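Q: Trace token order:
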Amino acid sequence: MSVNSLHIGIFGRRNTGKSTLINWLTGQEISIVSPLPGTTTDPVKKSLEIPGIGPVMLVDTAGIDDLGELGTQRIRRSQEVISTVDCALLLIAGNQFGEYEVQLIGLFREMDLPYLILHTKNDIAKIAAITQTVIRQYSSAEIIDLHAGDDSHREELVEALKRIIPETALRQTSLLGDLVKPQELLLMITPIDSEAPEGRLILPQNQAIRDALDHNCITVVLKETELPAFLSRGITPALAITDSQLFGEVARLLPEEIPLTSFSILFARQRGDFEAYLAGTHHISRLEEGDQILLLESCTHHASCDDIGRVKIPKLLQRYTGKKLHFTVVPGLSPLPANISQFALVIQCGGCMVTRRQLLNRLRPFIRAGIPVSNYGMTLAYLNGIFDRATAMLRSSRNEKGRG
């Protein structure tokens, strides 16, 4: 799933034409189409390019009115998709609008998710005036009456999508563009350890290098073992970016006047709630004996003996606080624990594998509950005593934007 694609969720009752719609939009038989209700079980994803919009990820979900124990699980999976998409299409057919649709609209509203209402199969029955009147009691969303098979309706749907797509979903915020100028030298310090994939760099490092190239910067990439040799050449970079796990070592070697941050902190600003991270990280010094800490990994990977989230951060936190702390790890976009009030602190990874909306929705329940949140990189900077230094350039950039 591309994090740079617009994610569109398709929701509705069984047999309202969700799979037909996704096949029609993609021009391929992606989802199984059947007159039998409940054909779609788990969410089905398909990438495509929509002219005028760009790359899109369509997510076809199970019917919200599915039956039985398995049906309940499918409905829950469909509801979980709401927190992962940028906008939604709510399908109805045969002028059916009632409790199920009202429930979905409530969830959309709770997540501040823009959506369209599509009355499908209008070749069989067009939308009635009374249906529109009932819908307006619960929603002001645009209503489109269409037949997924009539290509004349495709342009109408695409134009309606353009009207509701959040601007932030289409605009990829730069990692480095407001921090450095063209031709400035960036120093990227990347360890090759047990967590590094064979023969390549990890995604945050790749994305940072690409962003630097996009902004015409001169980029030097080296391992931490080569840092002394580089510094001995008398070259002063405009910014040094390191893996967060190397903060202590790099901060000791790098002259104080050279700005320093990490790949994870750059992603914290691009994808997460940077203001909440800045405030929440300081709660580390207020942790108490027996506190519960939640670690959110927004990807799934094989955990190594040096795993940053599962091994290093827990060890460093307990060493720093001198307290016995308890840790829970939730990988990928798996469901959050039911009782979030048990946690004294939440620490989120950089989020390079998810969209900004997915990550913000992940953090939303904790922020609303007043639970402090931090980020892997910001936590490691704090534990190494360089939090102010590691966030200084990013805080300065934020303040300059505010004055502008």
Summary: The radius of gyration is 24 Å. The CA atoms of residues 178 and 398 lie 9 Å apart.
